Amino acid sequence: MARACNIHHNNSRYVQASQRAIALIAEMIHTASLVHDDVIDDASSRRGKHTVNKIWGEKKAVLAGDLILSAASIALARIGNTTVISILTQVIEDLVRGEFLQLGSKENETERFAHYLEKTFKKTASLIANSCKAASVLGCPDPAVHEIAYQYGKNVGIAFQLIDDILDFTSCSDQMGKPTSADLKLGLATGPVLFACQQFPEMNAMIMRWFSSPGDADRARQYVLQSDGVQQTTFHLLFIQQDDYISSRVSNKKSGGKELLVFPLFPS
């Protein structure tokens, strides 16, 4: 994103040190959030490895996550741009708000999917969206470009999470590097589950009780596999890709035809 914005602004392929720092800071925030997530979820493995809380215990894991966040804050302050500081601190607020959203549930099916997408944005997409925006702010003064970068990052982030939710039902634990159906076991209804619920209304009761009754998680998984929940989630992914492509083309026309960023999220 940094290189794309720099080329768009002054035909320079050079990525500034401050823009590279954004990538470093984003990765630190992301890592800290995963460490804290694993504590909240009492997870024992991630990416095929034992989690920090599994090795060191919850208290040390929380402190480790805090330490990483403090290092990210120091690196962010060194950039010395108040706009960028505001943009990236929004990510941390969104991560916390996303966790609170995850604790809630909606009875209405339409509200439930909107709630899921909002939670997905705050817990996953906000990091990518705001990191892309921060990199664009450092490379180009045009607010329209900042918005393009933000929207692109948002779409990438939501798409990433939807793919992860699909893989939870279509891959094995070895491929995922973590237990499959983990979200169901945590009581969480992701995209494939919400779409499957349209074909199997009996899943509504399971969702509202957070799949807490014996056998709920296994039955819900079977319902998802019998339904078109995975296919519908994939269709939603394609919609995001199309929307991102169209938005980029429109933005290019508004900027006098200069290419900024036009390539598919998921190359065929």
Automatic annotation (TrEMBL):
Q: One Pfam family, please name it.
A: polyprenyl_synt
Q: Which UniProt keywords apply?
A: Isoprene biosynthesis, Lipid metabolism, Magnesium, Metal-binding, Mitochondrion, Transferase, Ubiquinone biosynthesis
A Gene Ontology cellular-component term:
heterotetrameric polyprenyl diphosphate synthase complex
What cofactor does this one take? Mg(2+)
Gene Ontology MF term list: all-trans-decaprenyl-diphosphate synthase activity; metal ion binding
**From its record, what is one biological process in GO terms?**
isoprenoid biosynthetic process
EC number(s) of the enzyme? 2.5.1.91
**Enzyme class, first EC level, given as a word:** transferase
Question: Which cellular compartments is it found in?
Answer: Mitochondrion
CDD domains hit by this protein: Trans_IPPS_HT
Which reaction equations make up its catalytic activity?
A: 7 isopentenyl diphosphate + (2E,6E)-farnesyl diphosphate = all-trans-decaprenyl diphosphate + 7 diphosphate; 6 isopentenyl diphosphate + (2E,6E)-farnesyl diphosphate = all-trans-nonaprenyl diphosphate + 6 diphosphate
Pathway listed for it? Cofactor biosynthesis; ubiquinone biosynthesis
InterPro entries for the chain: Isoprenoid_synthase_dom_sf, Polyprenyl_synt, Polyprenyl_synt_CS
Similarity annotation: Belongs to the FPP/GGPP synthase family.
Give the matching PANTHER family: ALL TRANS-POLYPRENYL-DIPHOSPHATE SYNTHASE PDSS1 (PTHR12001:SF69), GERANYLGERANYL PYROPHOSPHATE SYNTHASE (PTHR12001)
Protein role? Heterotetrameric enzyme that catalyzes the condensation of farnesyl diphosphate (FPP), which acts as a primer, and isopentenyl diphosphate (IPP) to produce prenyl diphosphates of varying chain lengths and participates in the determination of the side chain of ubiquinone. Supplies nona and decaprenyl diphosphate, the precursors for the side chain of the isoprenoid quinones ubiquinone-9 (Q9)and ubiquinone-10 (Q10) respectively. The enzyme adds isopentenyl diphosphate molecules sequentially to farnesyl diphosphate with trans stereochemistry.
* Assembly mode: Heterotetramer composed of 2 PDSS1/DPS1 and 2 PDSS2/DLP1 subunits.
What is this protein's record name?
All trans-polyprenyl-diphosphate synthase PDSS1
Supply the source organism for this entry. Answer: Moschus moschiferus
